[in-house]
Amino acid sequence: MKDKVFGVLQRVGRSFMLPIAILPVAGLFLGIGESFTNKTMLDTYGITGLIGPGTFVNALLSVMNDAGNIVFENLPLIFAIGVAIGMSKKEREVAALAAGIAFLIMHASIGAMIKIHGGTEALLSGASTEVLGIISLQMGVFGGIIVGLGTAALHNRYYKIELPQVLSFFGGTRFVPIICSIVYLIVGILMFYIWPPVQGAIYKVGNIVLASSYAGTWVYGLMERLLIPFGLHHVFYLPFWQTAVGGTAQVGDKVIEGAQNIFFAELGTPGITHFSVSATRFMSGKFPLMIFGLPGAALAMYKCAKPEKRKAVGGLLLSAALTSMLTGITEPIEFTFLFVAPVLYGIHCVLAGLAYMLMHMLGVGVGMTFSGGFIDLFLFGILQGNAKTSWILIVIVGIVYFVVYYLLFTFLIKKLDLKTPGREDSGEVKLYTRSDLEAKKNDQNENADELSAMICRGLGGKNNISDVDCCVTRLRCTVHNSELVNEGLLKQTGASGIFHKGVGVQIMYGPRVTVIKSNLEDYLVTAPDKEDTGYAIIKKESEKDTEKGIEKKVQGKVISTVILNSPLTGEAKDLSEVPDEVFASRIMGDGAVVVPSDGNVIAPADGVISFVFPSKHALGLTTTDGLELLIHIGIDTVKLDKKAFETYVEEGDKVQAGDKILSFDLEFIKNNAPSIASPCICTALNSNQKVRLLKTGDIKAGEALIAVDAFE
After folding, report:
1. Domain 558-711, classified CATH 1.10.3720.10, yes or no
2. Residue 455 CB coordination number (10 Å)
3. Is 349 a catalytic residue?
4. Among the listed ranges 188-192, 327-331, 362-366, 565-569, which one has the minimum average pLDDT value?
5. How far is residue 337's CA from residue 305's CA, in Å, rounded to a whole number?
6. Cβ–Cβ under 8 Å, residues 498 and 505
7. How far is Cα 127 from Cα 15, in angstroms, rounded to an integer?
8. What keywords are assigned to this protein (predicted)?
9. What whole-number distance in Å separates Cα of residue 290 and Cα of residue 368?
10. 263/653 Cα distance (integer angstroms)
11. Rg, C-alpha atoms of the chain
12. 16, 83, 421, 461: which has the fewest C-beta neighbours closer than 10 Å?
């Protein structure tokens, strides 16, 4: 039950991302437009003649101001459509249309009920508002979310409905707007009676939050960071930003609900002397963290890296720190120490709560659109002036935070010997990706299909995938059977981390995740219903044959044996000795490993080339006996991106044992990869087949390496 609830909450959280994603652009329009049309600012900087009233620039800025305002004024409708799109599984454009219709009908029904029962005069003060010209109840974004969730549920249930022949025209997707219209006419009538007490309860919650003062602000900041690994932070902070839980305020002649809405309403209202700290308390705390604290943590990780690895890790950490400072996107840094040193993340969450509390205590009035980086600070703090925002206090506290993060993280990393970037025992230096399996240079579509196939199989196959979506940096999936998820396989797709809770699976890819998600959705349209082993890089795990690297025990009489030769000259070893957990545990298949002494690869048997990986570091061979082989040169060599490899075959080529199929620069791989150990494995053995190692130690290409015995 808990896992199902988590899966639903995860989907709800990610559905919020589409409407939230428009806020930075709307905020940019509003911030620039309001700042440079504000009379006080124009007079202060002496630019009234340049961009003041009557100039073309002023007219353009006024348009930008109104363009930003219209988004914030209609967020309920935007959330209704966005949530419906995010929660629907197929035919999402139909869900979007149905949500828009349902939203209008619900509020029209509420408006009619208000007229029937004596008009707005019969309601409590502030209980009514105008929604797209319709007199309705003050439901705010909650109204949009109610429509979006309900529409998505109806859509997912009925978009394939088959009606009797006489009504068949109205079946399928055409039925969705119809049923939504009927349902939300009823919902609108019910909401006239239900919402007022609900609204009263929300106001009480908001009053409790406001009364909690600084302690409540600290808890808010702590929870907002603490929920990030679970992907539930959007569900947590959105009510504070967009509903009365975050407070209400009279701005101009309107009652505004939600901290972010209050801030932007004040931003566009002349005569505001200082932005409401009771609203910005839920936003200002991010700035010391994003712009100062996390860069301090990045510097600490750099200083603690091994001297020989500092150059490599420095570029990664600098890029991540600049991303955090400018845009407020912090996951490259946060997930690094979340997975390698959870204690650091726990301390980070506590300090995050403290940052929010300090900004509240100091009366900082800087709001934001989405991220909390320097761009937001410049638009909504610096440009608005220190008198209205007290933004200079962010810099003062931020400098202290930089020092605290640097000293504290340096001490803990050294004291606890935490394996932060540059301190790993392996030769590889990584920040938030383990390996990059997308060879980008020449054939992006082909590469995307290969990566999508790997993700699909790692999630248990097409039939096991219920839902696919993404947020800023994470691919968020829901599966039917969580036991079929292969985390080891998913890590091979270049993920920086994986969070798997019940049927909810989150795979961290960074900012490129939107492209990965789109490619995966396209792939799933035509993907086979059962797993395809043609790519060989992925082993379809047998439910009974293998468990955590334990070799299968096959008994009985041997009825046939296939001998496979070594494709390389070098030192032959048992597969368990390869310095890679996935290969060594035999998750991908069974075989042997050769540490090569030269750079030539030959075909180990007669057969057909089943695939050549785009980066040329690996290829597959299907033998005439039906065995599927993977020859993988080195460990984590995909990142070399063709630089050390040359292939002499293509997919579909027939080869004979001993034919040269690939060559590589041995010295280059030694210097640029964690290991030159090269696995040669059978990836799709039957339940009655077992691999037997024939030789260890020195071996020449073409000599017998392994035998595959088939038992009765």
Report:
1. no
2. 29
3. no
4. 327-331
5. 14
6. yes
7. 28
8. Cell membrane, Kinase, Membrane, Phosphotransferase system, Sugar transport, Transferase, Transmembrane, Transmembrane helix, Transport
9. 13
10. 65
11. 30
12. 461
Across 32-36, 183-187, 377-381, least confident range: 32-36
**3-state helix/strand/coil string of 509-521:** CCCCHHHHHHHHH
Residue 151, CA distances (Å) to 102, 104, 176, 179, 257 in order: 8, 13, 8, 9, 24
Ramachandran class of 247: left when φ > 0, alpha when ψ lies in -120 to 50, beta otherwise:
left
* Least confident residue range of 277-286, 402-411, 483-492: 483-492
Q: Are strands 618-623 and 628-632 parallel, antiparallel or unpaired?
A: antiparallel
Domain with CATH 2.70.70.10 in the chain: 558-711
Beta bridge partners of 508: 474, 497
Q: How far apart are CA 680 and CA 575, in angstroms?
A: 9
Determine the pLDDT at residue 550. Answer: 38
Do 627 and 691 contact (CB within 8 A), yes or no? Answer: no
Residue entry with tokens 């002036």: 385
Residue of 304, 470, 471, 477 marked active site? 471
pLDDT at 126: 67
Contact yes or no for 42/498 (Cβ under 8 A): no
11 Cβ contact list (under 8 Å, min separation 6)? 86, 87, 467, 469, 476, 478
Task: Please state the rounded mean pLDDT for residues 132-149.
Answer: 89
Residue 404's nearest CA partner among 359, 363, 347 is 347
Cα–Cα distances in Å, from 456 out to 195, 411, 487, 527, 587? 43, 42, 12, 9, 16
SS3 content of the chain, % helix, strand, coil (to 5): 55, 15, 30
Average pLDDT, whole number, for the chain? Answer: 82
Residue pLDDT, tens place only, 63-82: 988 888 888 788 889 989 99
Q: How far apart are CA 331 and CA 289, in angstroms?
A: 12
Please tell me the distance from the alpha carbon of residue 48 to that of residue 40, in angstroms, as a whole number: 10
Tens of pLDDT, residue by residue over 389-418, are: 999 999 999 999 999 999 999 999 888 888
Taking the C-alpha atoms of residue 605 and residue 271, their distance in angstroms, rounded to an integer, is 82
Ranges of CATH 3.30.1360.60 domains, the chain: 459-538
